Amino acid sequence: SGQDMVSILQLVQNLMHGEEEEETSQAYRLQNVGEQGHMALLGHSLAAYISVLDRERLRKLTTRILSDTTLWLCRLFRYENGSAYYHEDDREGLLKICRLVIHTRYEDYTVEGFNVLYTKQPVIYISSAARTGLGQALCNQLGLPLSCMCRVPCNTMFGSQHQMDVALLDRLIKDDVESGKLPLLLVANAGTPGAGHTDKLGRLKELCEQYNMWLHVEGVNLATLALGYVSSSVLAATKCDSMTLTLGSWLGLPAVPAVTLYRHEDPSLSLAAGLTSSQPVEKLRALPLWLSLQYLGHDGIVERIKHASQLSQRLLENLKNLDFIRTSVEDELSSPVVVFKFFREYSNRDQTSHATQASTIQHPIISNERHIYDTFNQWLGEQLAQLVPASGVDVVELEDEGTCVRFSPLMTSAVLGTEIQDVDQLVDCLKMKIPVLTSTLQLREEFEQEVRRTVGLLYIEDLSWPGLGVVRYNYHSDGKNDDKQEKELEKINTELLKKLNELESDLTFSLGPEFGGQKNCVYIGMVTEDLDVSELVETIAATGREIEENSRLLENMTEVVRKGIQEAQLQLQKANEERLLEEGVLRQIPVVGSVLNWFSPFQASPKGRTFNLTAGSLESTESTYVSKAQGTGTTPPPTPTSSLAKQRLPGQKIFKRSLRSSDAFSETSSVSHCDDLEKADQRPPTLSPGQEQGPLETEKTEEQKEVAEETKTDTEDIQNDKLPHDCMKVEEQESQR
């Protein structure tokens, strides 16, 4: 029968906000949708209302909206005499451009279709730094084989390593022409998806004109075309044949379409390629953008893009003053995208050896080192994104640099509302994390050596773990099968992890990552420079031995108790047989035995057995019945504990190196010396047999007593936290006397 509107809207609201615990994240994601965002959202509903108008009025309205929006965008981004195609998927514009070029270069394509392509295979060139899967998506949509897609490598010798190698592209095009192929289109970047670098668009345009190719440009740096000052490398994009703009992320506008600006003189081919439509409803895609551009105005659009550029420059200036941070930017003066990573520079002595090692491409040390740095930078990026979510930093994988942290405010600042103070907070957090990364990197090798030297511990090499390292306590099996040994190993290491987490330390102990980690191991997280690695390893080994000994003690006790019970049953059965012999056969007869016991009672002490868990032996209970109390037996052995009883200063946590160990040692030595003086002075003088003590000896004895009393007083003062120089005064007095 259907539902009313209130119920349907309530259902939509529940689906949007979800459960109660998800309301916080949802509210944070929607809080930056201001009036300009509401204008864009309003455009979608208005487009639906406008579509019900009469055909003539709808045609006039859609033509006005489309022409106004196209004119504003062409003027704003310096693209003269251009047309616009509005699309939801940002790859759809490039797809339509490819179809337009195919229709243009193959005159009989409309009639013969793919038979024309068979005789002369088209080739589309894209950069190796382009978006992942872009070439495959184009081939799938166009119905072309993957051999029609040519990936152009980036520079390796000169220039940016993220720019397309123009000389190599020229050779590739010549080879394709000689083999009978048709160079069709080149996709260049004005801001690569990873590092934000811009290709040499001027030289690429000349190359495309030479071979009659179409040049399409895309990238985040195209947003800077709206600013008053534009770098020459980006300004060359205004001469290209087409470009794709993603205004939604640049301006923080939700649900607005992407725009592809292009130049072409034949409207029939544009219609055949799908760039234009005769349906008025299709032209209403530009309505949300038409409303938003009018709301922001030219100054508002320029201000947002300028603010994003200032944020990147602010971060870049601060990163230059930080040690162990390496940046990868195209232009030090103006770079909308900032990519940086943690990297420990080598000293002059280490640079030569490191360069020698790097000469071997597949050197295992170099590959492991890069893997470790990738892991640490992955952790750094996640920590910065968690601590400063308004910054919008993320982690990116680059082919040459490895894992890096990327700050692209043009893509995130308008949506997240990033401000200057957020960048400053990001720098402060980075300053706090750099010492932790440096200390952990320095102590990893020492930790590995200490673990390998310690009996009972096994070092597990896990290059993907961002921390000090991974260790496993080895269980010494006594001929047990693999399943039981695995269970014991898991039990001991789980208990070891629990014991380590109960310690009052600043370290984090865990079972490692949820997926891909080693089993039955203890993962140690990031550390600081004052970590005592030897104490940490010794504590882990001692705690593991304690757990293993307790486990063995429990197993042995179970076996001893079982054997003791069997032995007790045999002894009690033997005692019952002896009691029957002592009482006689007559006493076992029911009636006769009662009468006989009444006339002549039989006195027999109750005999039982008690099991001593400490000694593991059976004992008689006669002493218990005599003394009316159960004996304690021998004293049980102490529970195995760690041999580490290291003295610590007040407030000092475990695994921390003490900086006052020398002062504590000198103070302890002074107190011990004063105690020796006290014991020496309190000993009476030795007299030979029959010798009496004269007046001189009596006087000396009295003086020694006075010195002993003074020494005792000073020693008590030292023990009561008095200054150590009082003890020196006692020593001087003793030497004078």
From TrEMBL:
Residues 624-737 are annotated as: Disordered. GO terms for molecular function: carboxy-lyase activity; pyridoxal phosphate binding. This is Pyridoxal-dependent decarboxylase domain-containing protein 1. Keywords: Coiled coil, Decarboxylase, Lyase, Pyridoxal phosphate. GO terms for biological process: carboxylic acid metabolic process. Residues 673-682, 697-737 have a biased composition (Basic and acidic residues). PANTHER family: PTHR42735, PYRIDOXAL-DEPENDENT DECARBOXYLASE DOMAIN-CONTAINING PROTEIN 1-RELATED. Belongs to the group II decarboxylase family. Residues 335-441 form the PDXDC1/PDXD2 second domain. The gene is Pdxdc1. It comes from Pluvianellus socialis (Magellanic plover).
